[in-house]
Amino acid sequence: MALEVRVDTRRRLGAIDGKLFGHFIEHFHRQIYGGVFEPGSPLSDSLGLRNDVAEAMQGLGAPVVRWPGGCFVSAYHWKDGVGPAREPSFDKAWRVEEPNTFGTDEFIAWCRKIGTEPYVCTNAGTGTPEEMSDWVEYCNLRSEGRWAKLRQSHGHAEPYKVKYWSIGNENYLGGEMGSKTPQEWCRFVKESAKMMKRVDPTIELFAASTPDLEWNRLLLQEAGEVLDWISIHGYWDPLWINNNLAPYETCMAYTTRIETPIEQIRAILTATGHLGKIRVAFDEWNLRGWHHPYVDSAANAADCIRPRDENDRNSSYTMADAVFSACFLNACVRHSDLIGMANFAPSVNARGLIYAHPEGIVKRSTYFVFQALAEALKGTSVGVSVHGDAGFSVGDSIVPCLDAAAALETDGSWAVSLVNRHPEQAQVVDLRLDAGATGKATWCRVNGPSKDSYNDIGRSEVGLERGAFEIPSGDFLSFSLPPHSVTVVRGSL
Ligand code: AHR
Fold first, then answer.
1. Taking the CA atoms of the chain, what radius of gyration do you get in angstroms?
2. SS3 category, 357
């Protein structure tokens, strides 16, 4: 029995912002040092930036990259990371020495190299509104004042024009350096925003948030008029302490919880009158939480650093990660009136899309999901519904087999992103478009031989396949979706 997927091009859900396919890198383990940045490597350029990593990021057409954290940023002082003489500092978030050899100038150079927009997350933990606004001066003023002149003295005559700036990272959490109460947070954000916008009124300002009514009620009451975005984060497989990776089926159950925080934050923005005025950036997301146990308890720092190598195990990242990531991106497309940016956490090493090692890189399964969806899901998100999907059991819950999102461009080209979550069974789909479809359709698919397929050094099980089919005279396309697969079908009205 075929499942029916109906695309309703008249139901316009919102303009799809390309920043939904954004990225994040943090000074954590080997994301920066040994990932993006490896001076002395034969694979690096004269600045020490890994060419192969940069080329892989270019292959994704990364629209924006958030940096430097994450927890790291909440005790990071940006002035330590600029200039000819970099003093190492101690990273209180992750209990390691930060060499500061990769700082603002190197980040901007990397963004230029891969052709992406920089998004700077500032230190609202131990930092001050003045320190944050000084950072904006350093990056965005031409030569006015000491910090712009300092940038010029470092050999960067032209301003960097960094458009996206976040105030803080998860300062609502007790474990964050410089964590704050809602009452402290709203005032701090207001003062920081005032100073940062005085330096450059053209920047877009984000503030760390979470789907909590009290946090947002006060934040938006005090600073709602000066904020363009609020940021939320999501990790679904809680691996911080125990690296017991959830199996494929459990990850499929997790996909049914992706929209919970989105609906919560939508309700809060609606209740506070900010829906349509402030957008949401899901500026950290990943199926897998990062593994970093004992950071508060290990007597010896090495005991909390060693387990972090577990994040780099490539066999961890299977079709579960690819299918989950496609469901997440589909959800953002369906909520594109609200969500304008999403940043995969992280892009390189740890739980990243790309694994960098001394001899090269590995593209993990989710890398191909970004390639397939980012190139196709453009224009306007339109209505899509699935009919006849009995789903499959995971424990005592029923998980739908299919997840779908659809997009329409002004030239009449359309794209439908279809995920078959089922671990074993293919699904035959009748795809109907209300406006009809003619001519040829193309498809692009991410898959591997099994639900547990993964890529590693010398092992390529997951990749992209492409094909085409003629659209029959009728008004629907019929085709089969393999199990545990992500498929994007494209055509024109
Ligand atoms: O586990 C990594 C951390 O997850 C990031 O540093 C932080 O922003 C989030 O809590």
1. 23
2. strand
Burial classification of residue 449, based on how many CB atoms lie within 10 Å of its CB (0-12 exposed, 13-18 middle, 19 or more buried) = exposed
Q: Which atom of ligand 1 is nearest to the CA of 71?
A: 6
403 lines ligand 1 (CB under 6 A): no
Alpha carbons 147 and 233: distance in angstroms, whole number:
31
pLDDT one-digit tens code per residue, 126-163: 999 999 999 999 999 999 999 999 999 999 999 999 99
Return d(Cα 12, Cα 382) in angstroms, integer.
5
CA proximity to 310, closest of 288, 284, 326, 325: 288
The continuous run of DSSP H or E covering 197 comes out as helix 182-199
What is the Cα–Cα distance from 275 to 150, expressed in whole angstroms?
40
Whether the CB of 170 sits within 6 Å of ligand 1: yes
Distance 50 CA to ligand 1 centre (A): 24
265 and 258 Cβ atoms separated by less than 8 Å: no
Question: Ligand 1, atom 6: nearest CA belongs to which residue?
Answer: 70
Top mutation candidate among 25, 26, 167, 236 for ligand 1, by most atoms within 8 Å of CB: 26
Ranges in the chain, pLDDT < 50: none
How far is it, in rounded angstroms, from Cα 283 to Cα 131? 22
For each of the domains in the chain, give its residue range(s) and CATH number, in order of start. Answer: 3-10+380-492 (2.60.40.1180), 17-376 (3.20.20.80)
What's the pLDDT at 472? Answer: 73
In angstroms, what CA-CA distances link 262 with 52, 182, 268, 281? 35, 20, 10, 10
CA 337, 338, 341 angle in degrees (round to 5)? 105
Q: What is the Cα–Cα distance from 251 to 230, expressed in whole angstroms? A: 27
For the full predicted model, state whether its pTM sits above 0.70: yes
User: What is the reported pLDDT for 471?
Assistant: 76
339 Cα distance to chain centroid: 12
| Phi, psi (rounded to 5 degrees) for 120 | -100, 125
CA dihedral 184, 186, 192, 198 (to 10 degrees): -150
Nearest CA to 147 out of 79, 194, 203 is that of 79
User: What pLDDT shows up at residue 474?
Assistant: 59
Q: What span, in angstroms and rounded, lies between the C-alpha atoms of 370 and 342?
A: 12
Q: Is ligand 1 within 6 A of the CB of residue 423?
A: no
**Of all atoms in ligand 1, which is nearest to the CA of residue 72?**
6
Q: Count of residues for the chain?
A: 493
Residue ID of nearest Cα to ligand 1 atom 8: 70
pLDDT at res. 473: 65
